[in-house]
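Thought: the user wants the 3D structure for the chain below. I'll pass the sequence to the structure tool as-is, report back what it returns, then summarize two notable features.
Action: structure_tool
Action Input:
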Amino acid sequence: MLGTRIVSGLVLAAAAIVVIAHGGGVFFVVVLVLAVLGLNEFYRMLRPYRPIALAGFLSLGLVLYMAWYQDLVRLLASLAIAVVLTFLFAALGGPRRGVTGRIAVTVLGVLYLGFGFGFLLLTRRLADGSAMLLTVVFGTWAGDTLAYFTGRYFGSTPMTPRLSPKKTWEGFAGGAISTILLVVFIGLYTPLDPSQSLLLGATIAVVGPVGDLFESLIKRDVAAKHAGRAIPGHGGILDRFDALLFAAVACYYVLTVGFGF
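Observation:
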């Protein structure tokens, strides 16, 4: 299992470098596919809440289109359209018990995947976007990986015993340190100065685990161990990208509002 996890991680890392560096339509299509697969996992996990899947998938496609081919303002507007579209689909069946929950879960999925993957697209469009996105992606994954191994071999203090019993403060510390060090190192080859790299790394180190815990809370709610099986050794798309979906949003604002990219 561990060997499979390592091999899958290396393949995924190599693919990420190639696709992000290439950019263009290829990058958009890959992100769109990952987002759709992730939303499918989300709706499958939350099947008891009966999400309106078609409305969600159409809305997600619109959100990502706006992120890549338009701008942030239109991306935010498309999220408003997603609410209206979901309502219209729900209204087709008339007022039935549970319809409010169906709308809420459907829109939550669009917000979760739309914001996460949408801000990956927006980051790639920045000046030096390839370098910036690679920094965010590998900084997040480094934290995930080192947190896993540090927690596995040295973890003894539970971080959130009820929410995610296997996560430890030792694992969090190992992940945070590795994230910051890697981002500072990569920053030497980007337009970021050392202080900016340090702040970006610290942002990922704090926000990434929140994304991980967000998915853990959802899985606990529906008693799911993994979101899916798309990535051998890792689970589903959400299991691999949960931290990155949150980190992407925070890092975009750090890069644009904080650093002026």
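Final Answer: Structure generated. The longest helix spans residues 194-222. The beta strands are 158-160, 164-168.
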